[in-house]
């Protein structure tokens, strides 16, 4: 059996492993989510990495027989108060600063009319950094709400 596909016992309760294998999908991401904690970095759908403030497991029932429970997702609340889904929008593991820069440059080609995206891409093209070594946006590129929380203004 492939060790990456092995379902961690913490992902299900009161059901046999064979039944858990039937219901639990995206095993690699869910196994990764079991070890996440507050303060860890996760790559979000905003196009950069953010720190986790709270992680909440989403439990489901075991089908129509109602046998046991299993985790099907993790809801992630970032330090700025945004909600993400480990299964639907977060990437595992976090993105590197180079990958984030490349994403924003490609995004600027897709959305040439978006001024904010173009501004970030211009900074990257000029050789300056729009994101820190953790892949989080620098103070100038955060929204006002995020800036107040992350930089304690």
Task: Summarize the SSE layout with pairings.
Layout: E1 12-13, H1 17-23, H2 27-34, E2 41-43, E3 49-61, E4 69-78, E5 83-85, H3 97-110, H4 115-125, H5 144-150
Antiparallel strand pairs: 1-4, 2-3, 3-4, 4-5
Helix pairs in contact: 3-4
Structure in words:
The relative contact order is 0.14. Strands 1, 2, 3, 4 and 5 form a five-stranded antiparallel β-sheet that branches. The termini are far apart. With 153 residues, this protein is α+β, with helices and mostly antiparallel strands. It is built from five helices and five strands, in the order E-H-H-E-E-E-E-H-H-H.
Helix/strand order, N-terminal first: EHHEEEEHHH
Helix/strand structural class: alpha+beta
Mean pLDDT: 86
Shape: elongated
Largest sheet: 5 strands, antiparallel
Query: What fraction, in percent, of the residue positions are helical?
Result: 25-40%
**Unreliable parts:** none
Tell me what portion of residues adopts beta-strand conformation: 15-25%
Alpha-carbon distance between the two ends: 52 Å
Task: Give the C-alpha Rg.
Answer: 19 Å
Tell me the number of structural domains. Answer: 2
Total strands: the figure is: 5
Task: Determine the number of helices (DSSP H or I, runs of at least 4 residues).
Answer: 5
In short:
This protein is of the alpha+beta class and 153 residues long. The protein has helices at 17-23, 27-34, 97-110, 115-125, 144-150, and strands at 12-13, 41-43, 49-61, 69-78, 83-85. The protein contains five helices and five strands, in the order E-H-H-E-E-E-E-H-H-H.
């Amino acid at each position: 059996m492939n060790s990456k596909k092995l379902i961690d016992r913490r992902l299900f309760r009161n059901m046999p492993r064979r039944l858990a294998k039937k219901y639990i999908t995206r095993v690699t991401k869910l196994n990764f989510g079991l070890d996440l904690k507050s303060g860890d970095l996760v790559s979000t759908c905003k196009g950069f990495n953010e720190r986790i403030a709270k992680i909440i497991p989403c439990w489901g029932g075991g089908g129509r027989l109602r046998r046991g429970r299993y985790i099907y997702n993790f809801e992630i609340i970032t330090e700025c108060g945004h909600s993400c889904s480990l299964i639907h929008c977060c990437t595992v593991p976090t993105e590197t600063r180079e990958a984030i820069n490349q994403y924003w440059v490609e995004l600027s080609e897709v959305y040439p009319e978006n001024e904010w995206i173009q501004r970030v891409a211009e900074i990257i093209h000029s050789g300056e950094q729009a994101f820190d070594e953790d892949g989080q946006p620098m103070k100038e590129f955060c929204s006002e709400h995020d800036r107040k929380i992350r930089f304690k203004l």
